[in-house]
Design goal:
alpha/beta; Aspartate Aminotransferase, domain 1; Aspartate Aminotransferase, domain 2; 15 strands; binds pyridoxal-5'-phosphate
């Protein structure tokens, strides 16, 4: 990869690495501009965006209607803080509540802030509605979870790297194995006020729970007076081929966390949604954010929802996702064992690389040199999560390139094409953190 980083790209890469903290290890592609599903680097090379900024660019880059909505609002007012009311927040919240089927929404900026909002809401509900003794509320979270990067959130990560050196952490979180009801039952106590869980574990490697898990979890929460709070920051808003991933099992959570795509690919916009019986624990002064729900963000997010609806992006994600999954399974079958699993839903697919043969990162970098952007998660999984606007032809172009990369690497390793390895891995919790 380094050999091709020339001229202008070097300039920017050097500045980022000289002045930026070393908390990222980006693929060395210096993006200059982008439109819909295409991205161009500073040297004019074109790439297909199969990554979609971790679901934040679900509408494609710079969607013209969302950009126009931003421009319109930028000629009126952008930031007022929540000290005053405005003309865009109410319509945005109304639209969001109607689409998601909740009575109220609380706007924040990043996904992690919306998760923090959920934690505060769940605990207060536990004390005030469920009658848990002050200071004793427990929240159940899944092993392999990813909910953001604040100290409270990394404190209940089961991934040692996310926690290492950042303690002491907030207590009150109990772990269960994702997809395993016996483990949920064992982690439950009379002090459990909520479960906060992703419907599909994204950062863990696009891990799907066994069919029926969420139905059983829903029943368990109802029976034990526990709030089921689903974090759809990455999975929500069409990514899995439904508006919300929880719809795949026909359940309804007690509260929902959204982010990423809510900002229409322009701004960070997140939200926590619940019905009055839960949301009413928030009283003036008990929670807030200077930027959350600002006039510009609300205008952009409202248009993002309208575009998603009017351009049928959810149905499109389902149809294109079926095609993407089928194409990637073909690549796996021809990989001679280099690819050991392909799994996903809608336009969200994880390709699991056999670590004995190659690191996911190597294949990601090889793809980038040929004009396809993707990203590894952990060492073994390549994620494909293109904008929901992607065409079948563009998917085919990207997967043809991925296929060529896989065939080339398999040949280099002397692997013969054979039947795929059907192993499906769930994120195991080898050493749950001691909370
Ligand atoms: C499920 C989930 N929740 C929360 C977050 C945190 O979002 P943000 O990075 O906007 O804080 C992420 C980010 O990837 C996520 O995937």
């Amino acid at each position: 990869m380094n050999a091709r980083i020339a001229g202008a790209a070097h300039h920017y890469i050097d500045k980022e690495s000289r002045f930026g903290a070393r908390n990222y290890q980006p693929v060395p592609v210096v993006v200059d501009h982008a439109l819909d599903c295409l991205v161009w680097d500073v040297e004019g090379r074109e790439y297909i965006d199969m990554m979609g900024a971790y679901s934040a660019v679900s509408h494609g880059h710079l969607h013209p209607r969302i950009v126009a909505a931003a421009h319109r609002q930028l000629q009126r007012v952008a930031i007022t803080s929540r000290a005053y009311q405005g003309t865009t927040l109410g319509p945005f919240l109304e639209k969001l509540c109607r689409i998601a089927g909740f009575e109220r929404a609380l706007p924040m900026n990043t996904g992690a802030e919306a998760v923090e909002t959920a934690i505060k809401c769940a605990r207060r509900w536990g004390y005030r509605a469920k009658g848990i003794a002050e200071g004793q509320a427990r929240i159940m979270v899944a092993c392999g979870n990813f909910h953001g990067r604040t100290t409270a959130i990394v404190g209940f990560s089961s991934d040692a790297d996310y926690r290492d050196g950042f303690g002491p952490f907030a207590p009150g979180f109990m772990h269960f194995d994702f997809g395993d009801m016996a483990s949920v039952r064992a982690a439950t106590s009379v002090n459990t006020c909520a479960v906060i869980v992703e419907p599909i574990q994204g950062e863990a490697g696009i891990v799907l729970p066994p069919a029926g898990f969420f139905t059983q979890l829903r029943e368990w929460c109802t029976r034990n007076d526990i709030l089921l709070i689903i974090d759809e920051v990455q999975a929500g808003l069409g990514r899995t081929g439904r508006w919300f991933a929880f719809e795949h099992e026909g359940i309804r959570p007690d509260a929902l966390i959204l982010g990423k795509a809510l900002g229409g690919g322009l701004l960070p916009v997140s939200a926590f949604l619940a019905d009055d019986r839960v949301m009413s624990v928030f009283t003036p002064g008990s929670h807030g954010s200077t930027f959350g729900g600002n006039a510009l963000a609300a205008a952009v997010a409202l248009e993002a929802l309208v575009v998603m609806e009017e351009e049928n992006l959810v149905a499109r994600s389902a149809a294109m996702g079926t095609h993407l999954l089928a194409r990637l399974r073909d690549v796996m079958r021809a990989s001679g064992g280099l690819i050991r699993d392909v799994r996903g839903r809608g336009l969200w697919v994880g390709v699991d690389v056999e670590p004995a043969h190659a690191a996911a990162r190597e294949l990601v970098e090889r793809m980038a040199t040929r004009g396809v952007l993707s990203k590894e998660t952990h060492e073994t999984v390549i994620r494909f999560a293109p904008p929901l606007t992607i065409s079948r032809a563009l998917i085919d172009r990207a997967i043809d390139i991925f296929s060529a990369v896989v065939v080339e690497k398999s040949a280099q390793l002397g692997l013969a094409a054979g039947p795929p390895d059907p192993r499906i891995k769930l994120a195991a919790c080898s050493s749950p953190p001691p909370n």
